[in-house]
Fold each of these.
Amino acid sequence: MKHPRRLVAAVTTLAIAGAVAVVGVRLQQGAAAPGSSAAAIKATPSSQLTAEQTAQRKQEINKLLSARATAVRKGDLKAFLAAVNTKDAKLAARQRTLFANLRQFGFTRLEYFLANEHQVPRLTEKYGPTAFSSRVMMRYQLTGLDAKPVQTDVAYTFVRRGTGWLLVEDNAIDEVLSRDGHRQPWDFQPITVVRRGKVSVVVAQREAALGQKIAATAQQSVSGVRRHWPQPWDGSVMVVAMPEPQVMAIFWTNGFGRGWTIAAKDVPLFDGDPVGRTPARAAGSRIVVNPEQRKKLDKDLLAHEMTHAASVLLGNEAPMWMVEGYAEYVRCAVIEDDPGWTVDPYRKNVRKTLASMKALPGPTEFATNGDRSYGQSWWVIEYLVDRFGVQKVAALYADLAAHATGADAIVKKHTKMTPAQLLAAVKKFRG
Ligand SMILES: [Zn+2]
């Protein structure tokens, strides 16, 4: 049996976080006459605004952004485009696609608001001195999918036109965004969302048939995970299977040397600015499929990723052997739910690696040998479930996931074993 390979999205760090933090606004204190700031903004280059004018600009643009969010919720394309420079045909087309894509979802909550400014000389040259570029936060909660609001960012440029502001660029400063910024499934070509029960599958509009197929597979995976994951999970999940490799991801390989290919990953989402964030409990996640694998997805690979989606709300502190081991445990259990299938070849291969096992697999072991580490992590969970039962192992998972420190003590509390004793027991376990 070919073993699917993947990456834990949480290990990736933000290389660009520092670049954004240093961008500031040059303030010129005390220059504006009270009550005249609207006119003053019109005449004042962005770089020379007073603190009061800057605050007013922020207020005006946030109002414009709120109107766009309302337009999405109400299905009002005209209002959505009201502040867009529709003389730029390409920009207008992209904005129409964005609107139509967003309309594929139900939003319990949707809001946009300015984050940090990021002035760019070439845009000032192109659009004149009032040009204003900024990261914009998108905070939203998808109906039937997200238990809590989550956030991502986009990059927009506005210019002063009359008494208002006009959106003139929607991707000119994407390099300052978070790694998932402007990389949501709705940010590329026209999409379609296929719904089946609590599963939503996002695919390119022209691949709707693929979406139907994945949705049927995903529903089987949801049932499988619910059979083997004893913690509460209602099965609400989004699977993103777009052709673009940039959607919610950058890397599709992992490990040292030539590395290995990631088939799919569960990408956690947070309710906070995704740039420079400190680790916090995820508010939700999306299962994102490697575009090259999207036409050959099977239910056991999805069962692995859905185990991550089902456990993500518990916290992100559990050690890798627990996170990946439990997902493998569920994947194998789902396969063997069908009496016609077995994972015996996988079992045999893993048993052969146990004699040389030096540690419960962590990031170093996974990067060195992904296949071996997934297998050994699975074996740790097989052992624990055999010895303590699935309920107690899931309780151990939840305890580990919620605590940033003290993993050894938590393992000891639940199993009466030190990590070394657990390792020794796992190496002896024959399954
Ligand atoms: Zn995994």
Amino acid sequence: MQPQDLAKFRKLFIEQRQVLLGNQDRLGWNEGSNLVLSKEALFDEGDLCAAETEQRVQLRLRDRERNLLKKIHEALDRMNKGEFGLCSDCGDTIDVRRLQARPVTTLCIQCKEEQERKESTFAQLA
Ligand SMILES: [Zn+2]
């Protein structure tokens, strides 16, 4: 990978991390595992249901963001080790266009397809 590409990805990850960490504060990740419903949300008892739905959506979003944050940390870690852009399975270089579409990926397209094929086989067996 070209150094300028690497620099671009690093910048992207750092920016994304900042956004995600900002969201973390907004969603109250540091205040224990339960989200506290805001006073506005509880103001009208009739809205409680909507507030609960909203909370569920937020929780799902939070899980996804936390997962992404973890992947970004791992990607930065790989960058520091000089392994970013290499497939974690076969060690081949991951196509830069694939990385642009999905920067946190750790698999080249062949290994990814292989993995998906296995997963769908397991899904059929289950
Ligand atoms: Zn591979």
